[in-house]
Amino acid sequence: MPRAEDISEIVTAAHALTRLAALRTKNEVPTAQWRALSVLVTEGPLRLGELAVRTRTTQPGMTKLIGQMADAGLVSRQRDASDSRASVISITPHGQEELAAWRVELRDALAPLFADLDDDDWAVLSRAAGILSSRITNPQGATA
Fold first, then answer.
1. 27 Cβ partners below 8 Å, 6+ apart?
2. Vertex 22, ends 114 and 46: CA angle to 5°?
3. d(C-alpha 19, C-alpha 143), whole Å
């Protein structure tokens, strides 16, 4: 399989695993919430419009979501010092705890799919996970 197709397969499998995990956990929280919290963890505080772009959400949709997340104590909003019309969104400690708990839920929901893997397969997956993580955290010119 050509390398470009390998990348496509990885992305497709990752999306399928995420959907399957969501179904198995029966977690009814909007996926956009977890995406937003994940972006805030990796990129730090962002203006609402920037967060909408990075999570591929409309600005009105993000405004509504951030309102709900702020009410739940997952994020905080501060006025942007450089533009008082804009808000800067930050994840709260409670938001970090909830995101970590959700990631454990996903892991536990998917663990049975991988229970029969041997040490060699786990070594391959571990190496692949490390490579993928390095590309996500250091995209070499790409924007996340």
1. 102, 105
2. 110
3. 24
| Bridge partner list, 90 | 76
Amino acid residing at 5: E
Residues comprising the chain, all counted = 144
Total domains in the chain come to: 1
C-alpha to C-alpha distance for 136 and 10, rounded to whole angstroms: 13
Asked whether residue 116 is domain-assigned, the answer is: yes
CATH number of the domain enclosing 25? 1.10.10.10
pLDDT tens-digit readout, 113-137: 999 999 999 999 999 999 998 887 6
**Structure tokens that stand for 102 in this block:** 């959700």
Domain contains 144:
no
80, β-bridge pairs? 83
d(CA 115, CA 122): 10
pLDDT at 140 over 50: no
User: Is the model's pTM score more than 0.85?
Assistant: no
